[in-house]
Amino acid sequence: MEKETPWRRYALYHTPPPGPLAAFGACWLGWDLAAGAAAAHPEIAGLPRPVSELTETPRKYGFHGTLKAPFRTRAPLAEIEEASAALARAVAPFAAPPLRLSRLGSFLALTLAAESPALSRLAFRCVEALDGFRLPPDERELARRRASPLTAGQEAMLARWGYPYVGPEFRFHMTLTGSLPPAEARAVEAALAPVVTPLLGPETAMGAIALCGEGADGRFHLIRRFALAG
Predict the structure, then answer these.
(1) What Rg, from alpha-carbon coordinates, does the chain have?
(2) Is residue 7 a part of any domain in this protein?
């Protein structure tokens, strides 16, 4: 009999190291990935709704940038950790362009100020390294992915890798809100900009990958960080 994992799904994330940005992200979303605990929302003037409502959708995932999207598996945790560690040992740390506050469609996120081929390569290596453990998406997951129209390229990535935003479709971002009407998105952006911008440095250090798991509480928890050491 195959051994069950202690987590519903796994993912590989970029998470900022402990510091002001990580602390802000945890409090803003109301969930601390590293601590595996709720965090108190900050008081920010000018928001059109309470922070808890603005961040309800992304809260369960924690503050992160996706490298390998959440996937189901029957593999033991030890094998997932071993594969993640091997990948981290083969990749050297690097600096990506600085983060900036952006509107992506109907939600707000931190995005890179310029493209980073090195980060795109890292993300694809994460996808490849753990793909052998991934169970195919079920019909419910496929329907959820297709709820927003996919391009032909994204549909091809979904069929091959179980997630549409892989390879040439990858766009690094750290989600800050759920879907917002345009007026609300503008208001939240204006309120957040003076708070977030001072936390964003001249570059984005990529020094580790974070293996995270979705627990029985439906939220993602940090399992282990693997330092890039190639």
Answers:
(1) 17
(2) no
- pLDDT tens track for 203-227: 999 999 999 999 999 999 999 999 9
Tell me the two tokens of residue 145: 């992915």
The residue assigned the tokens 């964003």 is 200
CATH of residue 85's domain is: 3.90.1140
Whether residue 3 has pLDDT greater than 60? no
CB-based contacts of 29, cutoff 8 Å, min separation 6: 39, 55, 58, 59, 62, 63, 176
Look-up of token digits 């069929």? 159
Each residue of 108-144: b (16+ CB within 10 Å) or e? bbbbbeeebeebbebbbbbbebbeebbeebeeebeee
- Residue 22, CB-side half-sphere exposure with 13 Å CA sphere: 13
CB 167 within 8 A of CB 124: yes
